[in-house]
Amino acid sequence: MTNLIDKSTVFTHTESVNKPSSRISQAWKVAPNVFSSFRFAWAGVIYTFKTQRNFRIHTAIALLALSSGLIVHVTMVKMAILALTCALVMILELLNTAIEAVVDLTVGTQYHQGAKIAKDCAAGAVLVSAIASVFQGKRILKIYEKVVW
């Protein structure tokens, strides 16, 4: 199926839950240096970008919103609010992906109501933040219903 970014640090979706890679079995260890920590964090962002359609959509919309803000010369404060709002949506999408991965690892292919609730709530958090960011972006960029909607 889909491979993660670096097989030496993570496993593929097709690997069995019962056969974790040697790297996963050592996941509790602290990264040897700060650069490794950043590399692992960036691998998570890259993995999410490559595998999650919604993260790519959020990234494209964030770039569009921030570019629009620069084009229409919004104030630095409004630009900061816009950037933080976009970042919040992307952060929640990263957390949603992490929660889904842990839930899938835990329950495997079995259905579990608790797993469904966890995944639905994480997705709901992304949805709420995305809706809020649309309204905030619309307000900051002064996009009127007649033009966009």
From TrEMBL:
Membrane topology according to the record: Multi-pass membrane protein
Subcellular location(s) of the protein: Cell membrane
Ranges that cross the membrane: 61-92
InterPro entries xref list: DAGK, DAGK_sf, UDPK
Keywords linked to the UniProt accession: ATP-binding, Cell membrane, Kinase, Lipid biosynthesis, Lipid metabolism, Membrane, Nucleotide-binding, Phospholipid biosynthesis, Phospholipid metabolism, Transferase, Transmembrane, Transmembrane helix
Key word Oxidoreductase present: no
Pfam families, per database record: DAGK_prokar
Domain of life: Bacteria
GO molecular function (one): kinase activity
Family: Belongs to the bacterial diacylglycerol kinase family.
Name of the protein in its database record: Diacylglycerol kinase family protein
Annotated organism of origin: Cyanobacterium stanieri LEGE 03274
The organism's taxonomic lineage, starting at the top: Bacteria, Bacillati, Cyanobacteriota, Cyanophyceae, Oscillatoriophycideae
